[in-house]
């Protein structure tokens, strides 16, 4: 027994195997080695550029500046790219600052390996993982690229340089930059999931028609240009591309006689202007049985954009190829006035808002007039009293869209079809908190119902008991309404040129 005891004492104990570093530890070690290698490498020409670029991207200033320049360029595609890029940046920044920085408390790199000339004058004090600068850069560049590959290709090198600058200046480890960039790309695609890009949207304006002439060089097209619309660059591009077309300038007064004269010798009637001008041209085109060519020249241009016509190139392809669609037209009739609408028709708060804005704009200017008009309209405690379907109703708004809108929205609504044969009718009930009720209706989709509003689709609407002098609005124009109003559809009544493909 003693022998066994001493044998145990002199027998060596089995070796204890220490566990190896975890995957996280190995990745952190690799990240540090790559950072040290980058710090010790010579980056030709980067010393003057990258630190300045990194500072310029603080708080997204660089990307807001580029977005502003794109928005002011006058190109609808560039404006969409700017809005999508900024929205993607906002989502990425919010995600990084609320979740990313707080979930992993990683210290910033030690700056000993980084040459003094490279370092930022003010070192960031937040945690290192992930890189917010890289996330913002990737989000903005990806958002822009999802709307325009060409603009995205132009922005991408700048975004890459900003991300690289974060390692170059010692602000981040390479892993911080890679994860931040991945989150930025994900944010851009998340925004696209909520708000589809133009090429994801269904092509509106069906069916295609084959009874519209192709006009090589624009021969037979008479284009009336509203010079007050402010799109001379688009008109010049159209003139250059369609040298055989006739261009007639309209500087003010009554647009109808100008369009009537143009229609007498045209194979196709064209209009360059806003939605109001397009509405007038559509009436003349219907009267003369002519196809309509639309070049957007106003502020909103709902009809042209829903057609897929944003610039001169879109219209040139359609006119020269004879590519056109049949679209619906809305009509309204009352004792006071009658007409058509290609986009929307409304009674209640919106016509009053337009009326008040026109009354105040001469006194306080356009932008301030919008605010003053909104305050005046929303403070009034007299909703519209009407009779619909035999029932008395109190309404803040009655809206009828020519075809179904996905949203009335805080931004411009879009239509998946311009020939569905339906009116998109929405009503906002009278009662307290008109502003809240109108906002709820604006954010609602088609066929939705709530205590504040209803949305239905129909082919004909009759409204009785309208007070004398009540304004109505159609495609941005305002007129007085009679006591009885009917709104109905003319299915596929108008032929309009539009490109078969959206580039």
List the helices and strands and how they pair.
Layout: H1 2-10, H2 23-40, H3 46-56, H4 61-71, H5 76-103, H6 132-147, H7 149-168, H8 174-194, E1 208-209, E2 221-226, H9 232-241, E3 246-250, H10 255-263, E4 268-273, H11 275-288, E5 292-296, H12 302-307, H13 312-321, E6 324-334, E7 338-341, E8 344-348, H14 349-364, H15 366-379, E9 384-388, E10 391-402, E11 423-429, H16 434-442, E12 453-458, E13 460-464, E14 471-474, E15 477-480, E16 485-497
Parallel strand pairs: 2-3, 2-4, 4-5
Antiparallel strand pairs: 1-6, 6-7, 6-16, 8-10, 8-14, 9-10, 9-13, 10-11, 11-12, 13-16, 14-15
Helix pairs in contact: 3-7, 4-5, 5-6, 5-8, 6-7, 6-8, 7-8, 9-13, 10-11, 14-15
Radius of gyration equals 31 Å
Strand content: 15-25%
What share of the residues lie within helices?
A: 40-55%
Distance between the termini: 93 Å
How many strands, what sense, and barrel or not for the largest sheet?
A: 12 strands, antiparallel
What's the pLDDT, averaged over the residues?
82
Catalogue the unreliable spans.
1-13
Structural class: alpha+beta
Helical region count?
16
Shape: elongated
Q: Report the count of strand segments.
A: 16
Protein described:
The chain is α+β, with helices and mostly antiparallel strands and 503 residues long. It is 44% helix and 20% strand. It is built from 16 helices and 16 strands. The strands form two sheets. Strands 1, 6, 7, 8, 9, 10, 11, 12, 13, 14, 15 and 16 form a twelve-stranded antiparallel sheet that branches. The chain has a four-stranded parallel sheet with strand order 3-2-4-5, sandwiched between helices. Helix 6 (132-147) runs parallel beside helix 8 and helix 10 runs parallel beside helix 11. The radius of gyration is 31 Å and the shape is elongated.
């Amino acid at each position: 027994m003693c022998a066994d005891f001493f044998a145990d004492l002199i027998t060596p104990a089995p070796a204890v195997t220490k566990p190896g570093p975890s995957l996280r530890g190995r990745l952190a070690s690799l990240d540090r080695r790559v950072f040290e290698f980058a710090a010790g490498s010579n980056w030709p020409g980067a010393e003057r550029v990258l630190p300045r670029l990194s500072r310029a991207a603080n708080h997204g200033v660089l990307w807001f500046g580029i977005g502003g320049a794109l928005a002011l360029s006058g190109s609808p595609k560039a404006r969409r790219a700017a809005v999508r890029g900024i929205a993607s940046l906002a989502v990425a920044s919010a995600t990084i600052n609320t979740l990313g920085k707080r979930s992993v408390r990683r210290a910033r790199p030690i700056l000993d390996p980084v040459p003094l000339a490279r370092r930022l004058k003010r070192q960031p004090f937040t945690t290192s993982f992930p890189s917010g600068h890289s996330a913002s850069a990737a989000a903005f560049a990806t958002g822009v690229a999802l709307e325009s590959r060409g603009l995205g290709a132009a922005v991408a090198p700048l975004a890459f340089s900003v991300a690289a600058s974060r390692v170059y200046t010692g602000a981040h480890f390479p892993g911080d930059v890679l994860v931040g960039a991945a989150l930025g790309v994900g944010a851009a695609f998340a925004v696209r999931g909520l708000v589809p890009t133009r090429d994801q949207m269904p092509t509106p304006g069906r069916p295609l028609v084959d009874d519209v002439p192709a006009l090589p060089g624009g021969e037979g097209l008479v284009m009336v240009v509203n010079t007050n619309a402010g799109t001379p660059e688009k008109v010049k591009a159209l003139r250059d591309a369609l040298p055989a077309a006739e261009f007639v300038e309209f500087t003010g007064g009554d647009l109808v006689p100008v369009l009537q004269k143009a229609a007498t010798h045209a194979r196709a009637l064209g209009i360059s202007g806003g939605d109001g001008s397009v509405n007038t041209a559509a009436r003349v085109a219907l009267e003369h049985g002519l196809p309509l060519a639309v070049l957007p020249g106003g502020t909103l241009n709902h009809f042209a954009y829903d057609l897929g016509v944003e610039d001169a190139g879109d219209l040139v392809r359609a006119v020269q190829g004879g590519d056109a669609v049949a679209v619906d037209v809305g009509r309204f009739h009352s004792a006071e006035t009658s007409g058509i609408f290609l986009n929307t028709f409304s009674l209640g708060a919106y016509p009053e808002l337009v009326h008040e804005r026109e009354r105040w704009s001469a006194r306080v200017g356009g932008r301030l007039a919008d605010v003053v008009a909104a305050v005046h309209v929303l403070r009034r405690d007299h909703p519209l009293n009407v009779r619909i379907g035999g029932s008395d109703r109190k309404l803040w708004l009655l809206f009828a869209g020519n075809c179904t809108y996905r949203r009335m929205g805080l931004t411009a609504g879009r239509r998946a079809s311009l020939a569905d044969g339906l009116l998109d009718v929405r009503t906002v009930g009278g009662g307290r908190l008109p502003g809240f009720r109108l906002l709820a209706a604006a954010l609602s989709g088609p066929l939705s119902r709530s205590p504040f509003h209803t949305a239905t689709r129909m082919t004909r609407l009759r409204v009785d008991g309208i007070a004398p002098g009540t304004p109505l609005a159609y495609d941005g124009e305002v007129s007085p309404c009679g006591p009885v109003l009917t709104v109905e559809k003319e299915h596929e009544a108008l032929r309009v040129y539009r490109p078969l493909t959206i580039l």
